[in-house]
Amino acid sequence: MNVITDEKIIKYLDITKRALDKIKIAAPEKSFARRMAEDFENMARSYYSDAVHFKETGDYVNAFASVNYAHGWLDCGARIGLFDVEGDTVLFTLYE
């Protein structure tokens, strides 16, 4: 299907919101990795916020793109160990 439906964008916003709620920064407080983790989280939250805005204005193409960017930041942060996601392989793509 090549249509972004209301159901599809709601589904992906929900998945990413659950992922945002689950992450915990794993890097030590005064480490460079901590700053990277905070930046990854900020990028994910910003793209998620953009996705919600675009959905509310009816721009489902940009909403879908933004929510996928948001989740990409979360997946990357989890995969390289910036975020502790308690081994969740449903919401995140981990290495093993």
TrEMBL record:
Q: Check the record and name the InterPro entries matching this protein.
A: AF1782-like_sf, DUF357
Q: Which domain of life is it from?
A: Archaea
Which parts of the sequence belong to the DUF357 domain?
Answer: 11-83
Against Pfam families, the record matches this protein to: DUF357 (PF04010)
What is the name attached to this protein's record? DUF357 domain-containing protein
| Species for this entry | Methanomassiliicoccus intestinalis (strain Issoire-Mx1)
